[in-house]
Amino acid sequence: FGITTDESFVITTTSRKEITESNFSELVQDGVTLYLLQSVDQILPSATKERIDFLPHYDTLVKSGMYEYYASEGQNPLPFALAELIDNSLSATSRNTGIRSIQIKLLFDDSQGKPAVAVIDNGRGMTSKQLKNWAVYRLSKFTRQGDFESDHSGYVRPLPVPRSLNSDISYFGVGGKQAVFFVGQSARMISKPEDSQDVHELVLSKEDF
Question: Which CDD domains match (predicted)?
Answer without folding.
Answer: HATPase_SMCHD1-like
